[in-house]
Amino acid sequence: MECILLVPYPTIIIKNGSNPKNSYIKCRSIIEKDNKILFVYYKKLDVYSLPGGTLEVNETLEDCLIRETKEEVGLVVEKQKIIAKIIEEFNDRYITYYYEVKVCGKCKKNYTKLETDSEMIEVWLDKKDLNVFLESYMSMHKFETAMHFRESKAIAVYLGKINKDTVFEIETS
Length: 173
Fold this sequence. Notes:
By secondary structure, this protein is an alpha/beta fold.
């Protein structure tokens, strides 16, 4: 007997056939202004990502979302609604929750060493062609094409191009 859990947001599973060793939970903010969406770009890694990061011990998803957005882009946000949950299974399992957020104020950024060393900057990308850009962008970093693919799926949900009741799996090589 098959059981389907109905949630008010899509779940997308991306697999490459490996057995994940560790699991990480992440939260990412979708911030829109003037028909553009805020991304962070890691210059030295040649990678685009929505602001966010990894859940810390004893932290709630909402606390992670707020902390990571403050640290990366210096914005105080309030969670509005969950947009999507994307599970990636490679050598490790990554479960990422995407939230639409409301900006409530500004604060000081607090970059990690990786973010500083990677020369991370903020970029506003036009939402009109964003999915095409993310899905076709060939990063110099060989593993990060999957990150762009993941972000494109979250943006597609946000823009209403993927139905909120969708649950699907994608096999990659």
